[in-house]
Design brief:
The complex is a heterodimer. By secondary structure, chain A is of the alpha/beta class. Chain A is built from 13 helices and 23 strands. In chain A, helix 3 runs parallel beside helix 6. The radius of gyration of chain A is 24 Å and the shape is globular. Chain B folds into three domains: 101 residues, RNA polymerase II/Efflux pump adaptor protein, barrel-sandwich hybrid domain (OB fold (Dihydrolipoamide Acetyltransferase, E2P)), CATH 2.40.50.100; 49 residues, Dihydrolipoamide Transferase, CATH 4.10.320.10; 221 residues, 2-Layer Sandwich (Chloramphenicol Acetyltransferase), CATH 3.30.559.10. Chain B has eight helices and 19 strands. The chains are: A alpha/beta, B alpha+beta.
């Protein structure tokens, strides 16, 4: 028995792009249907941002306790800790459940009709949803918003088998810790997961095809992470290509073509993500593509009138907060507002050890863009609050890049313990068009890590207070 | 393995060259990123240059005391990186003296006597700094990027009101646009202005940029001003029927071998000049007005005025009289390309005895070229075009080209100049005679 729904707005995908779009559209009085299959909150809440941060937090706690067990730093000592992975993932799952049910509640409050099922388009404005109970619903909509997100890239010679070869999703759901773990790919996903498992006592090895970690960041910013990996006995096989499984581990080839083996009970493949463009009828919609992604303009409009696309589906950076902003914007557009997606910069964070935050241009990028620049750098080692949190010794710093002629800030980067939490002020500074003097002239609370930002601006102006000129 | 060429960085405002004080590394030595490589001194300060990459030092350029141009390669480092970074510039082997680094037009000093076999002494490579660089200013009218500075809320309001923020004057620091600025803009009728004129891109242009004239550009300015000030120029323009020459040129180009270069007009004009100049030695000469000496040359060192990225340069085809048409064509191309790429040696950029200037496809109807002092003549090529010519009682379409020339009237009489050009005209109109 199939029934038919007509609606103003049909949103496909309930992740961090789709659900904010639905909430805002509902708030603005539009008639909204949201179709989602893989869990409200999408990759972010279920398989990405949130569970990985929970795992990282737990792993950090475990690592701290382990440290205290054999070195009574700050006068604190304890017995050697134990970790029960089943309980840990259970705690993480509870957290995820709480957040996803929160999303369901918010959608309901906004008057959104949420369907749990898989949508398949017959044409650009019509789709059939197969509900969990097997029933089908046909939806025809005036406007369609595509927010299907992305999936992990699989290596053809190392397909995910949910046993030895796992994806980041699989890694988040391990109920037993492996003794050894090989991670293919030293991008932010691989590093976040690999570092967490290293903190949990797993012997972790990385195999990376490039000659460095985190290629999107400059070397100065990634150096503290490299140092942490080195001092924590994580093996880095850079310039190396994974070849396949062996009985006891992972085979890889170095840059000279010699084959080696790294012992690994599990192999985590973290070589990137790709937009989910198949299995739901995209090909029937007559939409232009931009490589693997759906092509959109600055209003997130596709080549088909009344069809919009947001989030990971439309390109890099594949970050939740970018999708969220695009979702809000499209909802406002559909409600008749004039708007467009025009951020000055999209901030990005790596929850590595230590954390990395970057927004705007790095000094090299600014120079490449033809800007004459000045930079200022302030080390966490000179920051009281960082020292009180034992965050001064890992090489962290804040670096500000500004145009030389008028001191307008072009980019802000930081690496260090808890540095990610500085991202909001960094982004605000760029969006507001702040100059170095604006940051230097803003009173920052003492003692906080935020002081490092003000000091980096002072350093760029040639007048730092807490480091020698 | 890749090679990284470290160029002498711009170490200070307006600095075009710097002196090597001390090397801290040797070729063959392994260095790490940020290692101290060399101290250099400008007239403002001594600066330490660190290694930008890790690797093995392949080559260093210059001894302590040498003066290098900004932008020239000082160190080549072999890195582990797979790809070579930075383009390879030719090593600056030796360049001393304040003047040489920026010399393009020859100074008034005797040219080498006609014996100049390429000797064993190394030719200094000449690299010029950028012709001009913007003077730094404090924000104000000049916006460093195309994007107007405004907060997200202001941007949103502007979009909703259909206002292009690029048209709104910001009163804040660095030209930041506030809500008040937007209000003022709307109140002043700016919105109407935007919707008509500004949408067509018609806004007031108010930017003023001062540029310091330094380096090669300054040299060009000085030389040309001196030439115009000191030399009473006599300009003479003649038209030449080019049909026969163009037919010959097309034929030669169609039948040339793989090794032979494509022929332009310049080698033919050179041939004509080489043929007539022995009869007009005063036009293939240098004149030192202060000493009162005109030096006549038997050799023809043909200067070719060339537009380069850095400005006008005059590379020289030495002993043009000893070359056939193909050799002339190859040599003209070679010296001009060397000048354009900044690879011309001092020898290749000095010592011309007469200069040809051509604006190629542009060319205009006529020009009054400025003499490349201390020479006494310059020949300018104008545009070739089909014009109606009255011949045998009817108009006939003919490929006509004007030849503009300037002479130092102190040395060359008008009658002689006219006679010389008429002989050039006769040779070009009867191209077979060029080869007799």
């Amino acid at each position: 028995m199939s029934k038919t729904i007509k609606t103003d707005v049909l949103i496909i995908g309930g992740g961090p792009a789709g659900y904010p779009c639905a909430i805002r559209a509902g708030q603005l009085g539009l008639d909204v249907v949201l179709v989602d299959k893989s869990g409200l909150g999408g990759t972010c809440l279920n398989r990405g941002c949130i569970p990985s941060k929970a795992l990282i937090h737990a792993a950090t706690r475990y690592a701290e306790l382990t440290t205290h067990a054999h070195d009574p730093a700050m006068g604190i000592s304890c017995a050697k800790p134990k970790v029960d992975m089943r309980a840990l993932t259970g705690w993480k799952d509870d957290l995820v459940d709480k957040l996803t049910s929160g999303v369901a509640g918010l959608l309901k409050a906004a008057g959104v009709n949420t369907l749990n099922g898989w949508a398949e388009f017959a044409d650009a404005k019509t789709c059939t949803v197969t509900l969990d109970d097997g029933q089908t619903v046909t939806i025809s909509a005036k406007n369609v918003v595509l927010a299907t997100g992305s999936v992990e890239v699989e290596l053809p010679f190392l397909p995910f088998d949910d046993n030895r070869v796992i994806s980041s999703t699989g890694a988040l759901n391990l109920t037993k810790l492996p003794k050894t773990l090989a991670v293919i790919g030293a991008g932010y996903i691989g590093l976040e997961m690999g570092i967490a498992f290293a903190k949990l006592g797993v012997k972790v090895s990385f195999v990376e095809a490039l000659d460095r970690i985190l290629p999107l960041y400059d070397k100065a910013i990634t150096r503290p992470v490299s140092r942490w990996l080195k001092t924590h006995n994580v093996d880095m096989h850079l310039n190396c290509k994974a070849k396949g499984l062996s009985k006891t581990g992972l085979l890889y080839e170095d840059k000279d073509g010699a084959e080696h083996e790294v012992t690994a009970e599990k192999v985590l493949v973290a070589v990137g993500r790709k937009p989910l463009t198949t299995g739901w009828g995209l090909e029937t919609m007559g939409i232009d593509m931009d490589g693997a992604f759906v092509r959109v303009d600055e209003r997130c409009a596709t080549s088909m009138r009344g069809v919009y696309a947001i989030g990971d589906l439309v390109g890099e950076p594949m970050l939740a907060h970018k999708g969220t902003k695009q979702g809000e914007m499209v909802a406002e557009l559909l409600a008749g507002h004039r708007t467009r997606f025009d951020p000055i910069a999209i901030p990005a964070v790596c929850f590595t050890e230590p954390e990395i935050i970057g927004v705007g241009l790095s000094p090299d990028e600014a120079k490449a863009a033809g800007q004459e620049i000045i930079t200022g750098k302030f080390p966490f080692a000179a920051l009281g609050k960082a020292l009180t949190m034992q965050g001064g010794a890992d090489g962290g710093f804040v670096r500000i890049t500004a145009r030389k002629s008028d001191h307008v800030i072009l980019g802000i980067h930081a690496v260090g313990a808890h540095a990610a939490e500085l991202s909001g002020e960094f982004s605000l500074a760029l969006e507001m068009g702040a100059r170095l003097e604006d940051i230097a002239g803003t009173i920052h609370v003492h003692p906080t890590l935020g002081e490092g930002f003000a000091e980096s601006a002072l350093a760029a102006l040639g007048q730092p207070l807490h480091i020698a000129r | 393995m890749g090679l990284f060429s470290l160029k002498l960085p711009d170490v200070g405002e307006g600095v075009v060259e710097a002196e090597i004080v001390e090397w801290h590394i040797k070729p063959g030595q392994t260095v790490s990123e940020d290692d101290h490589l060399v101290d250099i001194m400008t007239d403002k300060a001594t600066v330490e240059i660190p290694a930008p990459v890790s690797g093995v030092i392949k080559e260093i350029t210059g001894e302590p005391g040498d003066i290098l141009a900004v932008g020239s390669v000082i160190v080549t480092i072999e890195t582990d990186a797979a790809a070579a970074s930075d383009e390879e510039a030719p090593p600056l082997r030796q360049a001393q003296g304040e003047d040489k680094a920026n010399k393009a037009l020859p100074d008034s000093k005797p040219t080498p006597k006609p014996h100049s076999e390429p000797g064993p002494k190394p030719h200094p490579r000449i690299q010029s700094g950028a012709g001009s660089e913007p003077v730094e200013g404090w924000g104000g009218e000049e916006r460093g990027s195309a994007r107007p500075l405004a907060s997200p809320a202001v941007r949103k309001r502007a979009l909703e009101a259909d206002i292009d923020l690029a048209c709104v004057k910001g009163s804040g620091p660095a030209g930041r646009i506030s809500h008040q600025d937007l209000d003022d803009f709307i109140a002043s009728g700016g919105r109407q202005m935007v919707s008509s004129a500004a949408q067509m891109g018609r806004t007031k242009r108010t930017g003023i940029n001062e540029h310091k004239v330094i380096g090669l550009r300054r040299k060009i300015a000085q030389n040309l001003a001196a030439s115009k000030r000191n030399i009473p120029h006599f300009a003479y323009i003649e038209d030449i029927e080019m049909d026969a020459l163009e037919n010959l040129r097309a034929h030669l180009n169609a039948t040339r071998t793989k090794e032979q270069p494509k022929l332009t007009l310049l080698p033919f004009l050179s041939l004509a000049l080489i043929k007539v100049l022995p009869d007009f030695p005063q036009a293939n000469a240098h004149f030192d007005g202060e000493a009162g000496i005109a030096t006549h040359y038997e050799a023809v060192h043909m200067g070719i005025a060339t537009a380069t990225p850095n400005g006008l340069m005059v590379p020289v085809v030495k002993h043009a009289e000893s070359m056939d048409i193909w050799e002339l064509a190859s040599e003209i191309t070679r010296v001009c390309n060397a000048a354009r790429d900044g690879k011309g040696t001092a020898d290749e950029l000095t010592g011309s005895t007469i200069t040809i200037t051509s604006l190629g496809a542009l060319g205009g109807i006529a020009s009054t070229p400025v003499i490349n002092a201390p020479e006494t003549a310059i020949i300018g090529v104008n545009k070739l075009q089909v014009r109606p010519v009255w011949q045998d009682g009817a108009f006939a379409p003919r490929k006509m080209m004007n030849l503009s020339s300037s002479f130092d009237h102190r040395i060359v009489d008008g009658y002689d100049a006219a006679l010389m050009i008429s002989k050039v005209k006769a040779l070009l109109e009867n191209p077979a005679t060029l080869f007799m």
